[in-house]
Amino acid sequence: MVVRVTGFVFLVAHLLLVSWVGLLPRDVAWVTAPNTVPLAGLRADLALGPAEAARLIAGGLLLLAPLGVLLPMCEGRLDVSRWGSLTRTVAAGALVSLALELLQTAVPGQVVDVDSVFLNTLGVALAHLLVVPAARARLRRRAARQGRGQGRGRGFGRGRVVAGSDPAQGRTPRIPRVPIAR
């Protein structure tokens, strides 16, 4: 429970910060054209030289990378499919990035860049792959030491270990053949 609440608080704080930074109007004399050609912006960044390209690409990767860790934290489940978790997290990160880019069309001085969506999504995926599997394994070991994780399907309803759940309370009772009110 504490992990989920902490993850949610940090997620909201991060999204507010990213929204404020990404949607802040820029006072510029001219604005570049929107980039709707995939990888054209990355080629232009690489043409600026290695140091500037690394700074711009790293900025794109790191902007939404915390979502790769915070979204699974909000979910709070420890025993889930790695690929399913990665897919859900990357899809949500891509949607947040796309929404941010679309909202920028209404902000003076901001332009749409399709490569930003790619870099932001890649950053979410890399952060998830680097942190989440190891963190979940560590939390599962800690739960097993405390007597909480005793295998799939034992005390957890659908076979999921939820952070902060207590298997000592037993399974949720199920009443068969109860008609649904119409």
Can you walk through the features of this model?
The protein is mainly alpha-helical and 182 residues long. The protein has a domain at 34-145. The chain has six helices and no strands. It has helices spanning 2-22, 40-47, 50-63, 67-75, 82-103, 114-145. The protein is elongated. The two termini are 35 Å apart. The model is unreliable at 150-158 (pLDDT under 50). The chain crosses the membrane at residues 53-74, 86-105, 117-135.
Tally of DSSP β-strands: 0
What would you call the shape? elongated
Helix content: 55-70%
String of helices and strands? HHHHHH
What's the gyration radius in Å? 21 Å
Question: End-to-end distance, in Å?
Answer: 35 Å
Approximately what portion of the residues adopt beta-strand conformation? under 5%
Poorly predicted spans = 150-158
Q: What is the overall number of helices?
A: 6
* Rounded mean pLDDT score: 85
Class based on secondary structure composition and strand pairing: mainly alpha
Largest sheet: none
Pfam families: VanZ
Protein name: VanZ family protein
Keywords: Membrane, Transmembrane, Transmembrane helix
Organism: Streptomyces filamentosus (Streptomyces roseosporus)
